[in-house]
Amino acid sequence: MLKIYGIPLSPFVRKVHWALAYKGVEFESVPTMPADDSAEFRAMSPLGKIPAMDHDGFTVSDSSIIIRYLESQFPEKPLYPSGPENEARVCWLEEFADTKLADACAVFFRERLANPRMMNQPTDRYFHFSRKPGIGSQPFVDLGPRADRPNADHPMAQRISSTP
């Protein structure tokens, strides 16, 4: 049985879950917090990062590496396009999303979810996008659903708006 260790709150864990769902591969989700110190988890993920995977005794961590493994192990429904140029472009976009985009989104996650819901800290609703001289600060605006926004009734929009 294929097991994915992590928490669904992590976009990297969700990425692997979505890949498995798309491929139609059954798996068990094992709730594991990042930096878990258990010997079992650290054997799979020496850096303590989620997700980690155990597939019949073969273990590996990192969402992109796990997905590359899944592509080889379950090739029937490919996630990556054919051709080296197209595959390279998709890999570049995946790397960009995993690094720069994830870093840019982390502040929204922290301010809209982690601080108020998990850390019991107030949300800084007016954090600055830039502190460079000469560039004015822009206040944080509510990103929740409104009737005049597309997809206002989408479940993810509802989740975003439910944070204080």
Word description of this protein:
By secondary structure, the chain is an alpha+beta fold. It has five helices and four strands; from the N terminus they run βαβαββααα. It has helices spanning 11-23, 39-44, 63-73, 84-118, 155-161, and strands spanning 2-6, 28-31, 52-55, 58-61. α1 (11-23) links the parallel β1 (2-6) and β2 (28-31). α1 (11-23) runs parallel beside α3 (63-73). The longest helix has 35 residues, at 84-118.
Question: Short description, anyone?
Answer:
The chain has 164 residues and is of the alpha+beta class. 44% of the residues lie in helices and 10% in strands.
| Proportion in helices | 40-55%
Class by SSE composition:
alpha+beta
Total count of strands: 4
Major sheet size, sense and barrel closure: 4 strands, mixed
SS field, number of helical segments: 5
Query: Ends: how far apart?
Result: 40 Å
Strands of the biggest beta sheet: in what spatial order?
A: 2-1-3-4
SSE string, helix = H, strand = E? EHEHEEHHH
> Mean of the pLDDT scores?
78
Characteristics:
4-stranded mixed sheet; globular; Glutaredoxin; 2 domains; about 45% helix; alpha+beta; about 160 residues; 5 helices; disordered C terminus
Layout of secondary structure:
Blueprint: E1 2-6, H1 11-23, E2 28-31, H2 39-44, E3 52-55, E4 58-61, H3 63-73, H4 84-118, H5 155-161
Parallel strand pairs: 1-2
Antiparallel strand pairs: 1-3, 3-4
Helix pairs in contact: 1-3
